[in-house]
Amino acid sequence: MAELSGAVERLIDLALEEDLSLGDATSEATIPASARGRGTFLAKERLVLAGTAVAARVFERLGAGCRFDRADGDRVRKGEVFGEATGPMRALLAAERSALNFLQRLSGIATGTREAVDALSAAGGRTRLLDTRKTTPGWRRLEKEAVRAGGGVNHRFSLGDGILVKDNHVAACGGVGEAVRRARSRGNAMLRVEVEVVDLAGLAEAISAGADIVLLDNMDDSTMAEAVRQSAGRVLLEASGNMTLERLPRAAATGVDFVSMGALTHSAKAADISFEIEPAGGTRPAV
After folding, report:
1. Residue 1 lies inside a defined structural domain of this protein
2. Statement to judge: residues 135 and 242 lie in one domain
3. Do 51 and 128 fall within a single domain?
4. Could you say which of 96, 145, 196, 257 is catalytic?
5. 203: domain range?
6. Cα separation of 207 and 176, whole Å?
7. How many CB atoms lie within 10 A of CB 67?
8. Considering the domain boundaries, does residue 53 fall inside one?
9. Set 97, 128, 192, 247: catalytic member
10. From residue 51, how far is each of 45, 46, 104 by CA, in Å?
11. Residues 125 and 215 reside in one and the same domain
């Protein structure tokens, strides 16, 4: 299994502590300690898989084994079994919810991202899909990995790995040009300067001041197309704000280099996945 970061291991610690700080009263009362079982992961809808390593690690932490037949980024059909966990029945039952919470949340992000990437591709252009920092606190690394599994591109992981001058920075500096000039003193080949603008005048000011990337915030499609024309390839352009699946082909048709969507992570719908357990050597009892 792929090695997980210390941050992800701590997240697993927290998840298991939430569920098991007082033990598992139900399983301890009903399941013999010697009982063993097997559980299978079933896709109850079409999805793009993500989060397999962290889900498997949850089972491993509690003394069970877990393997997946499909890799992160693979499409899984409705009704397809794509992995299993085996081991002590109590361990399977204790790990089930935490593992599914990771797997369903991250697969939901990957699935939504793939839908957005496909919508952009429908325009036949080169526009790439970016995520944002609008992530669940503590989950950023996992959620951004899920975006990549869905075919998206990661933007900044933190405030320190890129300069993005937002509207509040511009207001504090007294204008787009001044904010970009100050940022340029920190920028270098590895730390490009991006600035947010809300109109074509701001775009012209950003280009004149030496921005590398300009974020077109909440512009309509015709204004974005004009921004592409006026910039004439001098800067990269990122479109953001009010992006929906229906709008993405139109945004791509304007010729912008990137479209960013906070909804990839902050509004992702969890994928519908079940974990069906049966005793070792037996069948699942009727409910």
Report:
1. no
2. yes
3. no
4. 196
5. 118-266
6. 10
7. 12
8. yes
9. 97
10. 17, 16, 8
11. yes
Q: In CATH, what number is assigned to the domain containing residue 86?
A: 3.90.1170.20
Q: What pLDDT is recorded for position 283?
A: 55
CATH code of 195's domain: 3.20.20.70
Query: Residue 1 pLDDT more than 70?
Result: no
pTM of the model: 0.93
19, 74, 118, 217: which one is catalytic?
Answer: 217
Q: Which helix (H) or strand (E) segment is 17 a member of?
A: helix 6-20
Annotation marks residue 229 as catalytic: no
- Please check whether residue 284 lies inside any domain of the structure: no
Known catalytic residue at 72: no
First to last CA, the chain: 34
Q: Say which DSSP state 286 is in.
A: P
What's CA 89's distance to the chain center, in Å? 32
Give yes or no: 166 in active site: yes
> 66 with 162, same domain?
no
**Is 14 contained in some domain?**
yes
The angle subtended at Cα 139 by Cα 133 and Cα 141, nearest 5°, is: 70
Whether residue 192 contacts residue 163, with contact meaning beta carbons closer than 8 Å, is answered with: yes
CB atoms within 10 A of CB 285: 7
221 and 167 in a common domain: yes
Given the residues 128, 133, 134, 182, select the one marked as catalytic.
134
Q: State the pLDDT at residue 2.
A: 57
- Contact criterion met (CB below 8 Å) for 204 and 230: yes
| Co-location of 256 and 171 in the same domain | yes
The answer to whether 260 and 128 are in contact (CB under 8 A) is no
Selecting among 128, 166, 192, 247, the annotated active-site residue is: 166
Number of independent structural domains in the chain: 2
Going by pLDDT thresholds of 50, 70 and 90, the confidence category of residue 124 is confident
Cα maximum dimension of the chain: 73
Establish how many alpha carbons lie within 13 A of residue 14's alpha carbon, considering only the half-sphere containing its beta carbon: 11
